[in-house]
Amino acid sequence: MRSETARGAARGEKLPSLRGVFRAALTALLLLAGPAHHTRASETLPPLSAPIAATSVSGLSSGAYMAGQIQLAHAKDIVGAGLVAGGPFACAESAAGRLVPYWPTAMVQNAQNALHGCMLVDWGTPDPVALADRAKELASTGAIDSLTDLAADKIYLYSGNADRTVTRPVVEAAKGLYRELGVPEQNIALVEGEGGHGFLTEDEGEACALTDKPYVNDCDYDQAKAILEWRHGPLAAPAAAPSGRIIIFDQSAYANSGDGLADEGVLYVPPACAEASGCRVHVMLHGCEQSRETVGDALIKQSGFAELADTDRLIVLFPQVSASLVNQQGCWDWWGYTGLDYLGKDAPQIKAIWSMVERLAARP
């Protein structure tokens, strides 16, 4: 493992600064669209007859929050979730924002709550009971699937000892929420181990305790394997090197202007899944400042998912979000920058990602 002093002092991943958020709120009506892009991927997502009801999802930080949102929105089909340095569903939704549901004012309130109550806890630890009530309210209206579908899910949660960005009480609150929603204790793994704010590997990335780009940390721990084995049971040994195909695909077919998605997403298809149907889909969601436009393919190539996919018949989808005026660090939307309907099945980013999954589930 690399020396912990190799890169100097760790720095934390942050939401867009509050100053930047307020500036964005004042100008958003004129500058709502994301940054201009000039290239388009030439490929489309292939139909692979993937069993949609065997889909799993994981993510780091904002990707962990989005993973939880997708899981509850599509609880009928999602079989498990891995949340690395992430907290409970609807954590950022503020009381003030719900009282006055006007965008962008409510978005600013949510951003403050996200920082002070869902990353740090200087405004108090998230309340699993109150958040469970919010999830039940959304389920009662059909905005998300029935919460009874969570009962068989397997949940993996991770909190690094050196993570000062999303603090441990927040991750513990996520476990509390799942318990409130009826997930059995034996189905929830809360792992407290080494690492800064990043996705952990056996021998790839930065020094273990660092919190720095590309947020992939060499901690002598195969986090991809831990997530997948918690859901699916023992896996075959990973391939020495990926032998499948990385497809850079056009995300524009799944998103609208202002949804925050990047032009291109990434799909990894092992040889066995290209030749025969039935491979399961795993959706892996990057964190803030961790998209391809910021760190290249570091997460995609160093996380370990591709090597495991080759030997265990998994298709791995890496959707990508883009930085913009209201999302300056390229985070997934867990505080409402795409609009106040950001938690349910019709939320722009959730709808887009699920459309990608549906495409992979289609017959060739």
Please explain how this structure is put together.
The protein has 364 residues and is of the alpha/beta class. It is 31% helix and 16% strand. The protein has 12 helices and 11 strands. Strands 4-3-2-1-10-11-9-8 form an 8-stranded mixed sheet, with helices on both faces. A 3-stranded parallel sheet has the order 5-7-6. α6 links the parallel β3 and β4. The longest helix has 14 residues, at 348-361. The model is unreliable at 1-39 (pLDDT under 50).
According to DSSP, the number of beta strands is 11
What form results from the Cα inertia axes?
globular
What is the overall pLDDT average? 91
Please give the radius of gyration in angstroms.
Answer: 19 Å
Distance between the termini: 44 Å
Q: Can you give the helix content as a percent range?
A: 25-40%
